[in-house]
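**Paired protein data**
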Amino acid sequence: MRLDSPDLAAAIARLERQLRTVKLALGAVLIAIGGLSLTAWMTPQGDTISARQFMILDADGIPRGLFGVLADQASIGMMYTDPSGNTRLEMGVDPDGTPRLAMMDEHGRVRSEIAMRDDGSPTIVLTDSSEYRRIAISASNDGAGQVILFGDNFVNESGDTVSVQRAMFGTFSNGEPAIVFSDVSETIRASLNMSADGAAQWRFFGPTGTTARAVLGVYAEGTPIIELADSTGMASFRRLGGMLADTVVVAQQ
C-alpha cells in the first residue's frame, strides 16, 4: 500500500477520531472521580480515608512534611523538614497525651520546645547547641509564673548529664515576687522576696539552703533591718533603724 493511498489516509483519519473519543471519555472519567473524591472529603457522611502517614513532597520530590504516626511509632503529629531533609519543626501529642511543639536547628537538635506538664500547666524550654536546658518559662495552675535560668551541667546518680538550675525569678501563687539564686548542687543560697504589704528582704542561706544566716531588708513602714544568725537560725545580731542616732542594736545570746 502506498503512503499516499486513499485507504491509508482513511485509516489514519479513523484512528484520530477514535483517539479523540478515548481522550474525551478518559477526561470525563477523571472529572467524575475527582468530583466524587472531593465530595467524599467534604461531606461528613463520606467514606473515611485511613493511613498511618501522609507525606508532603516538594517540586523535586523531596519529602518536606509528614502528618501521622511519628518515628517512635507511639506519637501522633506533624513534622516539617528543610531542603536537606533535617527536621526543623515538630508538633504532636506524646504517648502519654501531652501536647508539644519543638523547633530544631539545621542539625536536627531541639533548641526550643513548648509543652505541658502532667497537671496541664504550660512550659517553654530553650536549649543550647548540645540540647541542654538554659532557660525555662512556666506558669502553674495556681497563678504562679517563673523564669528559670540554668548554668553548668553535671552527671547525676543515674549517669545522665543534666542542667543545673542556678537562678529563678517570678511570682508565687499569692502574687508575691521573688528572685532566687542556687549553687551548683541547686541548693538555694540567696533570695530576694517582697511580701504583699511591700516589705522586701534579701536572705542569704548556709550550705544546706534551709537556714537564713544573714538578712537585709526593709519593713512595710520603711524601717530597715540587718540580722545575722547562727547555724540554727538563732539571731546573734540585729540592727533596726535608718539613722545612727536612732539605731537599736540587739545582741542575742
User: Anything to note?
Assistant: Residues 1-6, 21-44 have pLDDT under 50 and may be disordered.
